[in-house]
Amino acid sequence: MRIRIRFSKHGKVRFTSHRDVARIFQRVLRRAGLPVAYSQGFSPRPKIAFGLALSTGHESEAEYLDIDLDPERTDGLEMGDLPARLSNELPEGMAVTAAVVIDRRTASLQQAVTSCTWQIDVVDTDANTVAGAVARALAAETLVVTRERKGREVTDDLRPGVLSLDVEGPVEAEEDEGSRVRLVAELATKPRALRVSELLGALDPPLIEHRVLRLHQWTTNETDARQRSNPLNAAASALVGAT
Amino acid sequence: MSLWPRLENLLPQVQKPARYIGCEQGAQAPTHGAGIVSWLLTYPDTYEIGLPNQGLQILYEILNERDDAAAERAYSPWTDLEALLRREKIPLFSVDTHRPAGVFDVIAFNLSAELTYTNLLNCIDLAGVPIHSTARADSEPLIGVGGHCTYNPEPIADFVDFVVLGDGEEVVGEITEIVREWKDTGRFDGSRRSVLRELAKVAGVYVPSMYQVAYDGAFIAEVTPRFADVPATVEKRTVADLADWPYPKQQLVPLTEVVHDRLSVEVFRGCTRGCRFCQAGMITRPVRERPAEQVRTMISDGLARTGYDEVALTSLSTADFSGIRQVIGETISDAGCDQVSVALPSLRVDAFTVGIAAEIQRARRTGLTFAPEAGSWRMRQVINKLIREEDLYGAVESAYSQGWRRMKLYFLTGLPTETDEDTLGIAELARNCVALGRRHHSSPSVTVSVGGFVPKPFTPFQWFGQNTVVELSRKIGLLRDDLRQNKGVQLKWHDPKATLAEGITSRGDRRLGPVIEYVWRKGGTFQEWSEHFNYDLWLEAMAASGCDVDWYVHRHRTDDEVLPWDHLSAGLHKDFLWQDWRDSLNELGLEDCRWTPCYDCGACTGYGIEHVVASTSPPAGGSQGTGVDLSQGGAVPVVLGKRPRAESNGDDPQPRRLVGVG
After folding, report:
1. A130 part of a folded domain
2. Residues A97 and A149 in one domain
3. Domain count for chain A
4. A146-195 tens-digit pLDDT
5. Are B220 and B564 in contact (CB under 8 A)?
6. Touching check for B8 and chain A: CB below 8 Å?
7. Using CB atoms and an 8 Å cut-off, which of residues 257-286 of chain B contact chain A?
């Protein structure tokens, strides 16, 4: 039996890495007494699968995790209690916000997610500068960056990965800190995940990130590319279809 | 009060920022205020090294359980964050509520290694507190230290206000009460001196500024208290019964990777094996076992609460724990513990131990570590590590036959009376282990790890002149040449230069204060880390301070010399240590005293308590402590391929004081 959960990550705990979060969940699942299935072999590992890594320092409303449960021990498992049961064991700043049973044939999170929506606060700038940078980027045919990969210079066009980019306006800041402006962007994850820092660096002028929050991860309906959904709804409806 | 809003803007710029956020399971956010003494328990190395420290966690809980105390934690920031903190003028902070270190009443450091002394100074400085105790104002925190290094705190005497010797469980409460009174009376001008004098009267607390050192040329003439009500000798503290202290009850579970990332349960404190190089074994006597039942409860509660899948049973020699079979048997058969592994960090070298390891590591049999410490039986009698070659080969054979492929062997070099033959014996042992492994596997591997020996205070070797860098390097060179042709043996060694720096601080006196300060001022922090260790800086500092390396490190001390720590006591009689040093030079081994008559080392008698053991018969296996006559080559219960027998093989009930002498 496979379940998919959504969780959030806010505040101090945002400085934990993707690997840290994996370790945290392994322990949280044990503490919560969930009947997690283990791999066979010399070093048994819990069968859990994460989606796209969240950069260390970024916050999120929409992280996902697939967990395989041992079918022989799932009697009496109340899916409705699961978010509270797991949130109870998570560190401050992390909470499970939803949980559903999914079909084992459901595409993995890595495969299914095609884009993410980000809320990006940039700092030491003003709304006009940001608006100009965004307008130039959206009007451009290409947004070419060169980066080093395995010791070789690679050029990439980021423009196709920028599905939307909007300026939301100034954000209130502390007295002694520079002014902040909020952007909302939908960035593609296929063929590779476009990172927020790459986008900001490619703008003219480049912008400096202050706080970044992942708002959504999106999957695309296989038959209708215009219909997008979040990984929970997509998986749950697939399950309904299958049974 | 929280520095978090300022810190969080810096953390995106540093490596591993999760080290600075706190938020661990078990972390506390205690209330501060009037009538509450605030302690900042600080480990002067990185979070990854310091977080698992059990001593610090035990005191954290004990203090926070008190109504009149609040304890938080701090660790040395890595160099990248330190640079940012200094640039932004942000002080050292607690990871619990991110309070500035300078607002705490007491900043208490755990000192486990001498090379962290420059980090101690750096932390005091980052806290915004003057590094010299004499320069501190009444309003500034008291700087305290505890841990194994504090048995010779003289090199850091100028920088600390008070030192705790021995177990901290009880004494932290007594210190709290004195500081609370000080706090209640408003810390008026000049009151710092009087609170230090009050602390000096607490058993186990040493206040260096209350003592005067008189010199006779290069030598110490005497160390005397400045006041009549300050004790002439400071005795260490000893907790009589571990059962009264089942801590940590809520072991911290970090959110990021640390060393020893697992549940730890201390099964006993103290050790009577009597290895003469081992300071821990000498200063933590007598042996006090935790009741097996309590160990079981701490394991099952701890695993359920933390979600860890590994538990380490800690002590100085866990296979000696008399309840070992019961505890391991029950832990691995416990229904809820199906994926749990048990780690025994300090393994004795014998087949019994391998049998235990086989029981608990049913799955992951990758590597096993043994510490024979020396390459020849003669040398092992000198250091009183009474492992015969048969013991080692029995253990290794048993391990290979039961599925292990990699052995790690720990050795010391630079030991008293060591000859090249003894040193090369290390290579011989390693080669023979590989040969045993070939019977079972096509490519067995043995890693030989060699450390340079540093003589430590309160051991029989405290009078021994440490080997020079040149000599240690030559010995390592001998081993390297000898093992060059041997496939299957990997040689690793500790940098002899770092061994020298440790030697400087290990047995130094108060005149080394300026040396440590010099190294710190020139940026010599994180000296435990090879990428930061700066040998030349230590030599430069010694020269600049007029201290002679040869005199401090390489010189043999004599019977009549006043040692810098003679006014402190680890409970051991100095003449016991001297006799043991003479026995050592005569190659006389000394059996474990738990099952033999008392040697009157002083550890028990001084405290009116005896060794606390759960079993009147010694644990099975091994030649040490079993009453087996080693000089006659008594049989060791080595069972190959099968489970070793649980009973002792000691047919000879005659206790003997001295064994060996060919």
Report:
1. yes
2. no
3. 2
4. 888 888 888 999 999 999 999 999 988 766 667 899 999 999 999 989 99
5. yes
6. yes
7. 257
Which residue on chain B is closest to A178 by alpha carbon?
Answer: B9
Q: Give me the phi and psi of B507, to 5 degrees please.
A: -120, 25
pLDDT in tens, B240-260: 999 999 999 999 999 999 999
Range of A176's domain?
A: 112-220
Q: Is the peptide bond before B248 cis (omega within 30 degrees of 0)?
A: yes
Q: Which amino acid is at B53?
A: N
Q: What are the distances in angstroms from CA B46 to CA A101, B75, B528?
A: 42, 6, 11
Residue that the structure tokens 């002439």 belong to = B232
Note the pLDDT of residue B638.
Answer: 26
Q: Which residues pair with A188 in a beta bridge?
A: A115
| CATH, residue A175 | 3.30.70
Distance from the A177 Cα atom to the nearest Cα atom in chain B, whole angstroms = 10
Q: State whether A12 and B309 contact (CB < 8 Å).
A: no
Helix (H) or strand (E) holding B335: none
Give the Cα separation of A64 and A111 in Å (integer). Answer: 13
- Mean pLDDT on A61-76: 93
> Residue A23: inside a domain, yes or no?
yes
Same-domain pairing of A121 and A196: yes
Nearest residue to B121 via CA among B160, B153, B74, B68:
B160
Yes or no: say if B88 and B55 are a contact pair by the CB < 8 Å rule: no
| Nearest residue of B to residue A209, measured between CA atoms | B12
- pLDDT single digits (tens) B334-393: 745 457 888 887 677 776 777 777 777 665 566 788 899 999 999 999 999 988 898 899
CATH of residue A56: 3.30.70.580
Chain B positions touching A42 (Cβ under 8 A) are: 363-364
Question: Given an 8 Å threshold on Cβ–Cβ distance, is A91 in contact with B23?
Answer: yes
Judge whether B262 and B236 are in contact, CB under 8 Å: no
User: CA of A234, closest CA in chain B: separation in Å?
Assistant: 31
Give B 535-574 residues with CB within 8 A of chain A: none
The residue among A79, A102, A125 that closes a domain is A102
Domains in chain B (CATH in brackets) are 4-235 (3.40.50.280), 262-507+563-632 (3.80.30.20)
Q: How far apart are CA B496 and CA B483, in angstroms?
A: 19
Residue B363's pLDDT is 53
Q: In a 3-state reduction of DSSP, which class is residue B389?
A: helix
Q: How far apart are CA B135 and CA B596, in angstroms?
A: 52
Instruction: Assess whether A96 and A127 both reside in one domain.
Output: no
For B21, nearest residue in chain A (alpha carbons): A12
Label residue B641 exposed, middle or buried (CB < 10 Å: 0-12, 13-18, 19+).
exposed
- Lowest mean pLDDT segment, chosen from B108-122, B372-386, B405-419, B600-614: B600-614
Q: Are residues A211 and A184 in the same domain?
A: yes
The first and second tokens of residue B587, run together, are 């190659």
> Is residue A212 less than 8 Å (CB to CB) from chain B?
no
Torsion B71-B82-A178-A183 (CA) sign? negative
A40, A20: one domain: yes
Q: Report the gap between the CA of B3 and the closest CA in chain A (Å).
A: 13
A227 within domain boundaries: no
Strand partners for A185? A118, A165
Q: Quick check: A16 and B25 CB within 8 A?
A: no
ipTM of the complex: 0.92
